Amino acid sequence: MEHFPSKQRAVGGTPDGRREPFTTDASRFFADVKDPLVGALTIRTGSRPLAEDLAQEAIARALANWPVVSTMTNPRGWVFKVAFNLSTSHWRRLRARRRAEARDTTGEHPHPGPELLTVDQLVLRDAIATLSPRQQEVVILRHFVRMSVAETAETLGVTPGTVKTLNHRAFAQLRTSLASVMGDADGD
Questions:
Q1: What is the pLDDT of residues 119-175, one digit of tens each?
Q2: How far apart are the C-alpha atoms of 30 and 66, rounded to whole Å?
Q3: Considering 56, 74, 105, which residue would you say is the last residue of a domain?
Q4: Rounded CA gap, 151 and 185, in Å?
Q5: Cα dist. 172→12, 126, 176 in Å?
Q6: Quick check: pTM over 0.85?
Q7: CATH number at residue 174
Q8: What are phi and psi of 13, to 5 degrees?
Q9: Among 63, 79, 105, which residue terminates a domain?
Q10: Which H or E element spans position 48?
Q11: Which domain, by its residues, includes 82?
Q12: What's the rounded Cα separation, in Å, for the pair 100 and 24?
């Protein structure tokens, strides 16, 4: 006769009813951070598939170091910082590869197909791309991920005043960039 655990067994618990905090806490953390992280990285990179890969890697690193990460004041911020660092590393490697391909005389250069984005998404992505990397991080964390000024500051390792200044300057630049695009569209 098979033994079935009682219905009162806790999710992530052991057969004798004890809880396994790693499984429960880690699962909850993953569920809470995954979608906002992929969204933020999609804005940052302009590519949903790349964003999903980078998010997966950042979350995997968090889970691999879960005993340490789970005790941090802001584990969510840590994962976003790791993900942004992975994004930066990705673009550095891509630029290096493109420089190497430019020196390649075979003439064979594989290029990925275009992403299908709406006009508004393309305009916004291009406008955000004109910002400095640090301004991009602040805008994405504050306005797309909806982190507070304090959470953003902690994630990026800067003061709240720096976050406010970067945000202010970024929005001034975005207004200028978007106004020029909108002005061009009106003149057509």
A1: 666 778 788 888 999 999 999 999 888 899 999 999 999 999 999 999 999 999 999
A2: 11
A3: 105
A4: 37
A5: 48, 15, 6
A6: no
A7: 1.10.10.10
A8: -90, 170
A9: 105
A10: helix 48-64
A11: 18-105
A12: 46
